[in-house]
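[09:14] KT: can someone run the structure on this one? pasting the chain below
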Amino acid sequence: MPKLAQSLHPHDLGHLRIIAELWGVELGSPNVEGALEEITASLLKPSLLAEMIDSLSLEADSAITALVFSGGRIA
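[09:31] RB: done, structure tokens below
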């Protein structure tokens, strides 16, 4: 399974900015490489992840729980 940075790498700077905005992360880098470093560092922070999980709907939380218990893959 690809790492987060590998999954985000093929995207342009505009796409990365949209992802960052949806997660509440402000990117300061003017290029893709710098933005990748910023966004991956931010998205891997346990506090941000916990905040996002706490904000999920019951249905979304159930889906993520099912995904975790299935080893990260669901047909």
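[09:33] KT: thanks! The chain has one domain: 4-69.
[09:34] RB: yep, looked fine to me
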